[in-house]
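Field reference: sequence -> structure
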Amino acid sequence: MQGFATGLLTDSNDFTNQSMTTSAQLGTLLENTDWIEVGLAGNLRDWTFTDHTGATVTGAQVNYNGQAAGYTASPVEDINYASVHDNQTLFDAVQLKSSVADDIHARERRQVLAMSLVALGQGVPFFLAGDDLLRSKDMDGNSFDSGDWFNKLDFSYQSDNWGTGLPIRSQNQGNWSIMQPLLANPALKPQPADIARARDAFRELLQIRGTSGLFHMHTLAEVQDNLHFLNAGPSQTPGLIVMKLDANGGDYGRYQHIVVVFNSTNGQVSFQNSALAGLKLHLHPVQLHSSDATVGQSSFNATTGTVAVPALTTTVFVSEQP
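Structure field:
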């Protein structure tokens, strides 16, 4: 099933459209957004926020497939990831779930967007080796017995291993009919420039994470006081997460305010909120000099409290301590 980063509702694939009504897609996307926001807050059990229905709930009250989404007492207990050694790599999941209309450049941006949700959240970020290189195992769902042909990593950045063949029969034969046309499509094979863009974007995300203690808070009380989501409730813009971090006099480094905008839609989004009006926000210095020219198109209007962020982009705005 598609999710926040792969275009649910905002860029639905054929399978999603055939199996879910538009209203069902919206409901699922908003529920997924709640899950992600709990994750960005460190999966805290007792942290309270406004969910997609407009109710004030704790992380433990958010239902994640029959379990509590929030389960930690402190963000330092939390490890977040978008892919791990089990199941498909993140890039293979993006390839499987993206709309057929998405070219390889859009898919690379979806990969970076998904990585940003891990890199800029509370707790401990975890990445599968090669996530930053668009690593593919040719959609192998369990590659422990697949050898180097499917598991190799290319640190020359010339190939991500996509399209080398159908994954082994024992684990994957039931899905070969879905996999084969994707793997055989030359337009879906990342080129070295695509791999380099994802690699550089990943490095920039880690640089940004290291510039403020607001990405590394240690207690529930800190997260409750300093982290808020602005695009909330039943009238929220689908496919958009706006996370506001505030130092509130604490010793978190040079930034007094940080606003992170995750735009998973395939169009520019403008978002206005009174909590942003009057702030002296500007693009994070790392993104100001980013290898990604698209992120530099982001803007902020202090008079109206409006951020504008391009499609499939995570933008970080900051303001310095007085």
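Note: The domain at 217-320 is CATH 2.60.40.1180 (Immunoglobulin-like).
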